[in-house]
Amino acid sequence: MNPFTYQRPETDDAAVQAAATHSAKFLGGGTNLVDLMRYGVESPTALIDVNHLHLTEVTRASSGATTIGASVRNSDLANHPIIREHYPLLSHALLSGASPQLRNMATTAGNLLQRTRCYYFMDTAFPACNKRNPGSGCAAIKGFNRIHAILGSSDACIATNPSDMNVAMAALDASVHVEGPGGKPFPGLATVAIQQARHVAKAIKAGSAGASTSFKYLDKGALAVVGRGKAVCEIRGHKLSGRPAFFTYLTVHMYYLSGGGPGHRVKVLIDWISARLGDPQNQVIDGGLADPVER
Ligand SMILES: Cc1cc2nc3c(=O)[nH]c(=O)nc-3n(C[C@H](O)[C@H](O)[C@H](O)COP(=O)(O)OP(=O)(O)OC[C@H]3O[C@@H](n4cnc5c(N)ncnc54)[C@H](O)[C@@H]3O)c2cc1C
Ligand code: SF4
Predict the structure, then answer these.
(1) Cα(78)–Cα(98) distance, integer angstroms
(2) Which ligand has its closest atom nearest to the C-alpha of 124?
(3) Whose CA is nearest to atom 8 of ligand 2?
(4) What is the value of pTM for the model shown?
(5) Ligand nearest the Cα atom of residue 121
Protein backbone atom coordinates (compact mmCIF):
# COMPACT_ATOMS: atom_id res chain seq x y z
CA MET A 1 0.00 0.00 0.00
CA ASN A 2 1.26 3.53 -0.79
CA PRO A 3 1.83 5.94 2.10
CA PHE A 4 -1.03 8.36 2.79
CA THR A 5 -2.10 10.83 5.47
CA TYR A 6 -5.31 10.51 7.50
CA GLN A 7 -7.19 13.75 8.23
CA ARG A 8 -10.29 14.43 10.29
CA PRO A 9 -11.37 18.03 9.59
CA GLU A 10 -13.78 19.70 12.04
CA THR A 11 -16.11 21.36 9.51
CA ASP A 12 -17.59 20.70 6.05
CA ASP A 13 -15.61 23.63 4.62
CA ALA A 14 -12.35 22.34 6.08
CA ALA A 15 -13.08 18.89 4.60
CA VAL A 16 -13.70 20.39 1.16
CA GLN A 17 -10.46 22.37 1.40
CA ALA A 18 -8.53 19.29 2.56
CA ALA A 19 -9.86 17.25 -0.36
CA ALA A 20 -8.77 19.89 -2.87
CA THR A 21 -5.28 18.32 -3.01
CA HIS A 22 -4.67 16.39 -6.20
CA SER A 23 -5.37 12.82 -5.11
CA ALA A 24 -7.12 13.08 -1.74
CA LYS A 25 -10.22 10.93 -1.18
CA PHE A 26 -13.10 11.23 1.25
CA LEU A 27 -13.48 8.26 3.57
CA GLY A 28 -16.98 6.92 4.28
CA GLY A 29 -17.33 3.40 5.63
CA GLY A 30 -14.15 2.45 3.76
CA THR A 31 -15.67 -0.85 2.56
CA ASN A 32 -14.83 -0.13 -1.07
CA LEU A 33 -12.05 2.45 -0.95
CA VAL A 34 -9.82 0.63 1.56
CA ASP A 35 -10.15 -2.66 -0.37
CA LEU A 36 -9.10 -0.89 -3.58
CA MET A 37 -6.15 0.71 -1.77
CA ARG A 38 -5.03 -2.72 -0.58
CA TYR A 39 -5.25 -4.05 -4.14
CA GLY A 40 -3.26 -1.06 -5.46
CA VAL A 41 -6.14 0.13 -7.65
CA GLU A 42 -6.61 3.37 -5.68
CA SER A 43 -3.62 5.19 -4.20
CA PRO A 44 -4.79 8.48 -2.64
CA THR A 45 -2.15 10.59 -0.90
CA ALA A 46 -4.66 11.67 1.79
CA LEU A 47 -7.82 10.20 3.30
CA ILE A 48 -10.31 12.84 4.51
CA ASP A 49 -12.58 11.23 7.11
CA VAL A 50 -16.08 12.78 6.96
CA ASN A 51 -17.89 10.32 9.22
CA HIS A 52 -18.17 12.73 12.18
CA LEU A 53 -19.51 15.74 10.20
CA HIS A 54 -23.19 15.28 11.15
CA LEU A 55 -24.30 14.26 7.65
CA THR A 56 -26.48 11.55 9.14
CA GLU A 57 -30.02 12.99 8.88
CA VAL A 58 -32.93 11.85 6.69
CA THR A 59 -35.48 14.67 6.46
CA ARG A 60 -38.71 15.23 4.56
CA ALA A 61 -39.92 18.77 3.70
CA SER A 62 -43.60 19.75 3.53
CA SER A 63 -43.21 19.74 -0.29
CA GLY A 64 -42.49 16.00 -0.05
CA ALA A 65 -38.82 16.34 -1.02
CA THR A 66 -36.63 13.98 1.01
CA THR A 67 -32.99 14.74 1.79
CA ILE A 68 -30.51 12.03 2.78
CA GLY A 69 -27.23 12.89 4.49
CA ALA A 70 -24.05 11.62 2.81
CA SER A 71 -23.00 9.63 5.91
CA VAL A 72 -26.31 7.86 6.58
CA ARG A 73 -25.41 4.15 6.84
CA ASN A 74 -27.09 1.82 4.35
CA SER A 75 -28.84 -0.14 7.16
CA ASP A 76 -30.16 3.06 8.77
CA LEU A 77 -31.40 4.35 5.41
CA ALA A 78 -33.14 1.09 4.48
CA ASN A 79 -34.92 0.97 7.85
CA HIS A 80 -35.71 4.67 8.19
CA PRO A 81 -39.50 5.26 8.57
CA ILE A 82 -39.54 7.95 5.83
CA ILE A 83 -37.79 5.64 3.36
CA ARG A 84 -39.87 2.60 4.28
CA GLU A 85 -43.12 4.52 3.89
CA HIS A 86 -42.39 6.69 0.84
CA TYR A 87 -39.58 4.88 -1.03
CA PRO A 88 -39.98 1.12 -0.45
CA LEU A 89 -38.08 0.56 -3.72
CA LEU A 90 -35.00 2.18 -2.21
CA SER A 91 -35.37 0.26 1.05
CA HIS A 92 -35.65 -3.10 -0.78
CA ALA A 93 -32.73 -2.27 -3.07
CA LEU A 94 -30.47 -1.45 -0.12
CA LEU A 95 -31.44 -4.59 1.77
CA SER A 96 -30.74 -6.75 -1.28
CA GLY A 97 -27.09 -5.60 -1.36
CA ALA A 98 -24.00 -6.96 0.42
CA SER A 99 -24.34 -8.31 4.01
CA PRO A 100 -25.71 -6.81 7.27
CA GLN A 101 -22.14 -6.13 8.47
CA LEU A 102 -21.26 -4.24 5.28
CA ARG A 103 -24.56 -2.34 5.26
CA ASN A 104 -23.89 -1.24 8.84
CA MET A 105 -20.62 0.39 7.69
CA ALA A 106 -21.42 1.55 4.14
CA THR A 107 -22.61 5.15 3.71
CA THR A 108 -24.98 6.69 1.17
CA ALA A 109 -22.23 8.75 -0.52
CA GLY A 110 -19.79 5.82 -0.50
CA ASN A 111 -22.39 3.51 -2.01
CA LEU A 112 -23.17 6.07 -4.71
CA LEU A 113 -19.48 6.46 -5.60
CA GLN A 114 -18.27 2.86 -5.19
CA ARG A 115 -16.20 1.65 -8.15
CA THR A 116 -17.15 -1.09 -10.58
CA ARG A 117 -16.56 -4.71 -9.55
CA CYS A 118 -15.20 -5.63 -13.01
CA TYR A 119 -12.58 -8.33 -12.29
CA TYR A 120 -10.02 -6.72 -14.60
CA PHE A 121 -10.48 -3.31 -12.97
CA MET A 122 -9.99 -4.74 -9.48
CA ASP A 123 -6.90 -6.78 -10.32
CA THR A 124 -3.79 -4.80 -11.31
CA ALA A 125 -2.19 -7.99 -12.66
CA PHE A 126 -4.28 -7.33 -15.79
CA PRO A 127 -2.67 -4.44 -17.70
CA ALA A 128 -5.62 -3.72 -20.02
CA CYS A 129 -8.33 -1.70 -18.31
CA ASN A 130 -9.27 1.70 -19.72
CA LYS A 131 -11.01 2.71 -16.52
CA ARG A 132 -7.89 2.08 -14.40
CA ASN A 133 -5.33 3.00 -17.04
CA PRO A 134 -6.87 5.11 -19.86
CA GLY A 135 -5.82 3.96 -23.31
CA SER A 136 -4.74 0.47 -22.20
CA GLY A 137 -7.75 -1.32 -23.72
CA CYS A 138 -10.54 -3.37 -22.19
CA ALA A 139 -9.71 -6.94 -21.20
CA ALA A 140 -13.35 -7.69 -20.39
CA ILE A 141 -14.71 -7.24 -23.92
CA LYS A 142 -13.16 -10.52 -25.07
CA GLY A 143 -12.59 -11.90 -21.60
CA PHE A 144 -14.68 -13.17 -18.72
CA ASN A 145 -17.66 -10.83 -18.78
CA ARG A 146 -20.61 -12.58 -17.20
CA ILE A 147 -21.35 -9.61 -14.87
CA HIS A 148 -20.85 -6.96 -17.53
CA ALA A 149 -23.21 -4.73 -19.49
CA ILE A 150 -25.46 -5.87 -22.31
CA LEU A 151 -26.96 -2.42 -22.92
CA GLY A 152 -25.34 1.00 -22.73
CA SER A 153 -21.76 -0.24 -23.12
CA SER A 154 -19.08 1.19 -25.43
CA ASP A 155 -16.00 -0.02 -27.33
CA ALA A 156 -13.91 1.33 -24.44
CA CYS A 157 -15.63 -0.18 -21.37
CA ILE A 158 -18.46 -2.61 -20.68
CA ALA A 159 -18.46 -2.31 -16.88
CA THR A 160 -21.73 -1.97 -14.98
CA ASN A 161 -22.45 0.22 -11.98
CA PRO A 162 -22.20 -2.22 -9.06
CA SER A 163 -24.66 -0.53 -6.71
CA ASP A 164 -28.14 -1.86 -5.97
CA MET A 165 -28.93 1.45 -4.29
CA ASN A 166 -27.96 3.47 -7.37
CA VAL A 167 -30.44 1.58 -9.55
CA ALA A 168 -33.27 2.59 -7.19
CA MET A 169 -31.93 6.16 -6.91
CA ALA A 170 -31.82 6.44 -10.73
CA ALA A 171 -35.36 5.01 -11.04
CA LEU A 172 -36.56 7.59 -8.50
CA ASP A 173 -34.61 10.28 -10.41
CA ALA A 174 -32.79 11.36 -7.27
CA SER A 175 -30.50 14.40 -7.37
CA VAL A 176 -27.14 14.79 -5.67
CA HIS A 177 -26.23 17.98 -3.76
CA VAL A 178 -22.52 18.59 -3.86
CA GLU A 179 -20.61 20.73 -1.36
CA GLY A 180 -17.52 22.23 -2.90
CA PRO A 181 -15.76 25.41 -3.91
CA GLY A 182 -18.33 25.90 -6.71
CA GLY A 183 -20.76 23.33 -5.29
CA LYS A 184 -24.26 23.29 -6.71
CA PRO A 185 -27.08 20.75 -6.67
CA PHE A 186 -26.62 18.14 -9.38
CA PRO A 187 -29.65 17.25 -11.51
CA GLY A 188 -31.26 13.79 -11.78
CA LEU A 189 -28.84 10.87 -11.69
CA ALA A 190 -29.90 9.31 -14.99
CA THR A 191 -29.33 12.48 -17.02
CA VAL A 192 -25.92 13.03 -15.45
CA ALA A 193 -25.00 9.38 -16.06
CA ILE A 194 -25.77 9.68 -19.79
CA GLN A 195 -23.55 12.75 -20.17
CA GLN A 196 -20.84 11.26 -17.97
CA ALA A 197 -20.78 8.09 -20.06
CA ARG A 198 -20.10 10.13 -23.21
CA HIS A 199 -17.50 12.16 -21.36
CA VAL A 200 -15.71 9.02 -20.15
CA ALA A 201 -15.56 7.66 -23.72
CA LYS A 202 -14.08 10.98 -24.95
CA ALA A 203 -11.66 11.14 -22.02
CA ILE A 204 -10.38 7.63 -22.77
CA LYS A 205 -9.80 8.54 -26.44
CA ALA A 206 -8.16 11.84 -25.43
CA GLY A 207 -6.09 10.05 -22.75
CA SER A 208 -4.66 7.65 -25.30
CA ALA A 209 -3.65 10.70 -27.38
CA GLY A 210 -1.97 12.26 -24.32
CA ALA A 211 -4.60 15.01 -23.75
CA SER A 212 -7.04 15.47 -20.86
CA THR A 213 -10.66 16.69 -20.75
CA SER A 214 -12.84 18.10 -17.97
CA PHE A 215 -16.48 17.18 -17.34
CA LYS A 216 -19.20 19.85 -17.48
CA TYR A 217 -22.86 18.96 -17.03
CA LEU A 218 -25.29 20.78 -19.36
CA ASP A 219 -28.91 21.10 -18.24
CA LYS A 220 -30.76 20.89 -21.57
CA GLY A 221 -34.30 20.91 -20.15
CA ALA A 222 -37.02 18.54 -18.98
CA LEU A 223 -39.72 16.41 -20.61
CA ALA A 224 -42.61 14.40 -19.18
CA VAL A 225 -45.52 12.48 -20.69
CA VAL A 226 -48.70 13.55 -18.84
CA GLY A 227 -51.40 11.66 -20.74
CA ARG A 228 -52.14 9.83 -23.97
CA GLY A 229 -50.56 11.95 -26.72
CA LYS A 230 -49.84 14.74 -24.25
CA ALA A 231 -46.65 15.95 -22.63
CA VAL A 232 -45.02 19.00 -21.12
CA CYS A 233 -41.54 20.15 -21.88
CA GLU A 234 -39.11 22.96 -21.22
CA ILE A 235 -36.04 23.15 -23.43
CA ARG A 236 -33.59 26.00 -22.98
CA GLY A 237 -36.30 28.16 -21.35
CA HIS A 238 -38.94 27.42 -24.05
CA LYS A 239 -42.07 25.72 -22.73
CA LEU A 240 -44.49 23.54 -24.68
CA SER A 241 -47.48 21.47 -23.64
CA GLY A 242 -50.09 19.11 -25.14
CA ARG A 243 -49.56 17.44 -28.52
CA PRO A 244 -46.61 19.60 -29.75
CA ALA A 245 -44.80 18.75 -26.52
CA PHE A 246 -45.62 15.07 -27.05
CA PHE A 247 -44.03 15.05 -30.52
CA THR A 248 -41.04 16.94 -29.12
CA TYR A 249 -40.81 14.25 -26.43
CA LEU A 250 -40.85 11.48 -29.07
CA THR A 251 -38.19 13.22 -31.17
CA VAL A 252 -35.86 13.83 -28.22
CA HIS A 253 -36.45 10.32 -26.86
CA MET A 254 -35.57 8.86 -30.26
CA TYR A 255 -32.44 11.04 -30.52
CA TYR A 256 -31.13 9.90 -27.14
CA LEU A 257 -32.09 6.25 -27.57
CA SER A 258 -28.90 4.34 -26.84
CA GLY A 259 -27.55 1.08 -28.24
CA GLY A 260 -28.44 -0.96 -31.30
CA GLY A 261 -27.47 1.64 -33.95
CA PRO A 262 -29.80 3.32 -36.48
CA GLY A 263 -31.70 0.07 -37.13
CA HIS A 264 -32.78 0.03 -33.49
CA ARG A 265 -34.24 3.55 -33.79
CA VAL A 266 -36.22 2.56 -36.91
CA LYS A 267 -37.57 -0.53 -35.12
CA VAL A 268 -38.64 1.52 -32.08
CA LEU A 269 -40.28 4.10 -34.36
CA ILE A 270 -42.24 1.39 -36.18
CA ASP A 271 -43.26 -0.13 -32.81
CA TRP A 272 -44.53 3.23 -31.61
CA ILE A 273 -46.50 3.93 -34.79
CA SER A 274 -48.10 0.47 -34.82
CA ALA A 275 -48.89 0.83 -31.10
CA ARG A 276 -50.68 4.13 -31.74
CA LEU A 277 -52.63 2.66 -34.66
CA GLY A 278 -53.38 -0.60 -32.90
CA ASP A 279 -54.43 -1.63 -29.40
CA PRO A 280 -55.20 1.55 -27.43
CA GLN A 281 -53.81 -0.08 -24.31
CA ASN A 282 -50.37 -0.02 -25.90
CA GLN A 283 -50.39 3.72 -26.40
CA VAL A 284 -48.37 4.63 -23.36
CA ILE A 285 -44.79 5.33 -24.40
CA ASP A 286 -43.18 4.75 -21.03
CA GLY A 287 -43.98 4.94 -17.33
CA GLY A 288 -45.82 8.25 -17.82
CA LEU A 289 -49.50 8.66 -16.97
CA ALA A 290 -52.03 7.41 -19.50
CA ASP A 291 -55.67 8.32 -19.86
CA PRO A 292 -57.81 5.45 -18.56
CA VAL A 293 -58.80 3.00 -21.31
CA GLU A 294 -62.36 1.64 -21.36
CA ARG A 295 -62.62 -2.09 -21.84
C1 LIG B 1 -17.96 -8.34 -0.04
C2 LIG B 1 -18.74 -7.18 -0.59
C3 LIG B 1 -19.98 -7.41 -1.16
C4 LIG B 1 -20.73 -6.35 -1.65
N5 LIG B 1 -21.95 -6.59 -2.22
C6 LIG B 1 -22.68 -5.55 -2.69
C7 LIG B 1 -23.97 -5.77 -3.25
O8 LIG B 1 -24.47 -6.90 -3.34
N9 LIG B 1 -24.65 -4.68 -3.71
C10 LIG B 1 -24.14 -3.41 -3.62
O11 LIG B 1 -24.81 -2.46 -4.05
N12 LIG B 1 -22.93 -3.17 -3.11
C13 LIG B 1 -22.19 -4.22 -2.64
N14 LIG B 1 -20.97 -3.99 -2.10
C15 LIG B 1 -20.41 -2.65 -2.15
C16 LIG B 1 -20.79 -1.79 -0.94
O17 LIG B 1 -22.15 -1.41 -1.08
C18 LIG B 1 -19.87 -0.59 -0.96
O19 LIG B 1 -18.58 -1.05 -0.60
C20 LIG B 1 -20.31 0.51 -0.03
O21 LIG B 1 -21.59 0.98 -0.31
C22 LIG B 1 -19.33 1.69 -0.10
O23 LIG B 1 -19.70 2.63 0.88
P24 LIG B 1 -18.59 3.18 1.89
O25 LIG B 1 -19.24 4.23 2.72
O26 LIG B 1 -17.90 2.09 2.62
O27 LIG B 1 -17.61 3.88 0.83
P28 LIG B 1 -16.05 4.12 0.89
O29 LIG B 1 -15.35 2.84 0.58
O30 LIG B 1 -15.67 4.85 2.13
O31 LIG B 1 -15.90 5.13 -0.35
C32 LIG B 1 -16.27 4.77 -1.67
C33 LIG B 1 -16.04 6.01 -2.55
O34 LIG B 1 -16.93 7.06 -2.15
C35 LIG B 1 -16.20 8.26 -1.85
N36 LIG B 1 -16.90 8.93 -0.75
C37 LIG B 1 -17.26 8.39 0.45
N38 LIG B 1 -17.93 9.30 1.18
C39 LIG B 1 -17.97 10.44 0.44
C40 LIG B 1 -18.53 11.75 0.65
N41 LIG B 1 -19.19 12.08 1.77
N42 LIG B 1 -18.41 12.66 -0.34
C43 LIG B 1 -17.76 12.36 -1.50
N44 LIG B 1 -17.20 11.13 -1.74
C45 LIG B 1 -17.33 10.19 -0.79
C46 LIG B 1 -14.81 7.75 -1.47
O47 LIG B 1 -13.83 8.77 -1.63
C48 LIG B 1 -14.64 6.59 -2.41
O49 LIG B 1 -14.23 7.07 -3.67
C50 LIG B 1 -20.21 -5.03 -1.58
C51 LIG B 1 -18.96 -4.79 -0.98
C52 LIG B 1 -18.22 -5.85 -0.50
C53 LIG B 1 -16.88 -5.57 0.14
S1 SF4 C 1 -15.04 -3.33 -18.61
FE2 SF4 C 1 -14.25 -1.30 -18.02
S3 SF4 C 1 -13.51 -1.64 -15.97
FE4 SF4 C 1 -13.63 -3.68 -16.93
S5 SF4 C 1 -11.67 -4.09 -17.99
FE6 SF4 C 1 -12.96 -3.10 -19.46
S7 SF4 C 1 -12.39 -0.91 -19.24
FE8 SF4 C 1 -11.74 -1.92 -17.36
Answers:
(1) 13
(2) 2
(3) 129
(4) 0.72
(5) 2
